[in-house]
Amino acid sequence: MADISAERKIKDAQVRATINQKLVESGEKERLKETLRQRLIECGWRDELKVYCKEVVKSRGLEAITVEDLITEITPRGRATVPDSIKAELLQWIRKFLAENY
Q1: Does the CA dihedral 11-14-18-23 come out positive or negative?
Q2: Among 10, 36, 64, 72, which residue carries the largest CB count within 10 Å?
């Protein structure tokens, strides 16, 4: 059973790498990133995360926090607060890309 799980993980990683390569080669990855950036700005996510960053820096002190600490602190919240509608839109975009190119 462990061998099947390990094989599955390897296969999944290979598929993800292939998809990523195709997205990069076609320029679609940059378009997806720009769309994501715009949607996050439009919905206020970026501003909310910026406020949270300021709160974290203020609570820990500017001299006591590194950029790496800040990234570690805000990344889980940032990922968790991306609206489901934006995730769904990007997933649909990727599915369409895959359907048209595979």
Answers
A1: positive
A2: 36
